[in-house]
Amino acid sequence: MRPTRIDIIDYGMGNVQSVRNAFERLGCEVRVSEDPSALVDADALVLPGVGAFGEAMNNLRERQLIEPLREAVLNQGKPLLGICLGMQLLADSSAERGSYSGLGLIPGQVREIPVVPGYRLPHIGWNDISIRLPEPLFDKLPEKSAFYFVHSYRFECDSRYVAGMTDYGTDVVAAVQRERIFGVQFHPERSQRKGLRLLRNFVDFVESVG
Amino acid sequence: MLAKRIIPCLDVTAGRVVKGTNFVGLRDAGDPIEIARRYNEQGADEVTFLDITASSDQRDIILHIVEACAEQVFIPLTVGGGVRKVEDVRRLLNAGADKVSMNTAAVQNPDLIFDASSKVGSQCIVVAIDAKQVAPGKWHVFTHGGRNDTGLDAIEWAKKVEALGAGEILLTSMDRDGTKNGFDLPLTRGVSDAVGIPVIASGGVGNLQHLADGVSEGRADAVLAASIFHFGEYTVRQAKEYMAARGIEVRL
């Protein structure tokens, strides 16, 4: 069997190298690309990213990635995993430093995490997850598994799309899922064994639908 | 619940991990990748590399170390030392760092904090504050590895870096660094209470009680230590079990 082919979309928003390292560790054939035509022959797409929402959407637009991305996911049914800012971009819109449209792949809005006394922002560190949809992302991962978060904004959406939640004095959506579209607010590529397990689960899912 | 973090710190020069006392008297502690891998296996929550190389011609060494570390160690990696421009931040992030720490350059040019956090996001920008007590209840910010007194009040400076967009503060007591007498708790608490961003306490850890004190009395969100881990006195795992037994939330 040939290795699963993962395309990591590089649109100038932060380090893609650690995401690449993690998928390579899992035996995937990884390509990092900002070329929209490259989206055609991958088995799955990964949208990483750190930084600001508005700049991220601008970068995707400048590289003419928005329509090819939507086409690959919505029409070709290509699995997609958004990580951190990459998950937030799946939403319809964001209120981060203005008002911006997102990719509109999972209905929802991105807003700042409300300030709760005793809780600092950004939300940085290892927080545990309450699993809402065990399959496929959290397969073989125990309830209360901890993952590494670093963010100040949260994804707000209907509970049917929530795959995992975390508590930071207020509810924070940790993972979203809609058919073959997935997003994680935390960094699985930086969450040690459990993070690699989650990425393995995504790859297994890709293989099962491929 | 968010866990309090334990962060082993690796001071790196000429490709090796070293450790000194009050910023001088260095002794060799080993290969950075080997050490980072060991801490990963012990359950460290992050690893911090501080490049203490004085000459700029050796700077590229740290990039290779960061690249090699990011390939093998799947926990967050913070890198600092010699960061002067937004471009330096980008190079370190591209090499595989998750966060970049800046110190002297941030004092000399506070706009760097704003520019860098605007470009790469606050969550990537750690401002390191080296503080030394100058009077009871008063600390100044020092730069250049502890040689220059900037005259800045440490707590006021902490508030300012937060306003400029820093995502986290790495607070080192120069009086305690390497002494094994424990954190400067009044300093740690003073800064922790003054800002709304996470604070990492550093400098002076000699035993596990010191780590627990940094969180419970210093109100730090994370504790950083070097020599107690480098020279095998304690493992990160032991430190976490100790803190958990005292009711501190840790990731075990």
From TrEMBL, chain A:
Pfam families, per database record: GATase
Biological role: IGPS catalyzes the conversion of PRFAR and glutamine to IGP, AICAR and glutamate. The HisH subunit catalyzes the hydrolysis of glutamine to glutamate and ammonia as part of the synthesis of IGP and AICAR. The resulting ammonia molecule is channeled to the active site of HisF.
Main location class: cytoplasm
The keyword Cytoplasm is annotated on this UniProt entry: yes
GO biological process per UniProt: L-histidine biosynthetic process
NCBIfam families: IMP_synth_hisH (TIGR01855)
Annotated ranges, domain Glutamine amidotransferase: 8-203
Catalytic activity as recorded in UniProt: 5-[(5-phospho-1-deoxy-D-ribulos-1-ylimino)methylamino]-1-(5-phospho-beta-D-ribosyl)imidazole-4-carboxamide + L-glutamine = D-erythro-1-(imidazol-4-yl)glycerol 3-phosphate + 5-amino-1-(5-phospho-beta-D-ribosyl)imidazole-4-carboxamide + L-glutamate + H(+); L-glutamine + H2O = L-glutamate + NH4(+)
Organism expressing this protein natively: Azonexus hydrophilus
InterPro entries tied to this protein: Class_I_gatase-like, GATASE, Imidazole-glycPsynth_HisH
Quaternary structure and partners: Heterodimer of HisH and HisF.
The keyword Metal-binding is assigned to this record: no
List of catalytic residues: 84 (nucleophile), 187, 189
Pathway(s) of this molecule: Amino-acid biosynthesis; L-histidine biosynthesis; L-histidine from 5-phospho-alpha-D-ribose 1-diphosphate: step 5/9
UniProt subcellular location: Cytoplasm
EC number: 4.3.2.10, 3.5.1.2
Protein's name in the database: Imidazole glycerol phosphate synthase subunit HisH
PANTHER family: IMIDAZOLE GLYCEROL PHOSPHATE SYNTHASE SUBUNIT HISH
GO molecular function: glutaminase activity; imidazoleglycerol-phosphate synthase activity; lyase activity
Keywords from the UniProt entry: Amino-acid biosynthesis, Cytoplasm, Glutamine amidotransferase, Histidine biosynthesis, Hydrolase, Lyase
GO cellular component: cytoplasm
Automatic annotation (TrEMBL), chain B:
Subcellular location: Cytoplasm
Recorded superkingdom: Bacteria
Catalysed reaction, written as an equation: 5-[(5-phospho-1-deoxy-D-ribulos-1-ylimino)methylamino]-1-(5-phospho-beta-D-ribosyl)imidazole-4-carboxamide + L-glutamine = D-erythro-1-(imidazol-4-yl)glycerol 3-phosphate + 5-amino-1-(5-phospho-beta-D-ribosyl)imidazole-4-carboxamide + L-glutamate + H(+)
GO MF term (any one): lyase activity
Gene3D superfamilies with a match to the protein in the record: Aldolase class I
InterPro entries: Aldolase_TIM, His_biosynth, HisF, IGPS_HisA/HisF, RibuloseP-bd_barrel
EC number: 4.3.2.10
Keywords noted in UniProt: Amino-acid biosynthesis, Cytoplasm, Histidine biosynthesis, Lyase
Subunit composition and interactions: Heterodimer of HisH and HisF.
Protein name as catalogued: Imidazole glycerol phosphate synthase subunit HisF
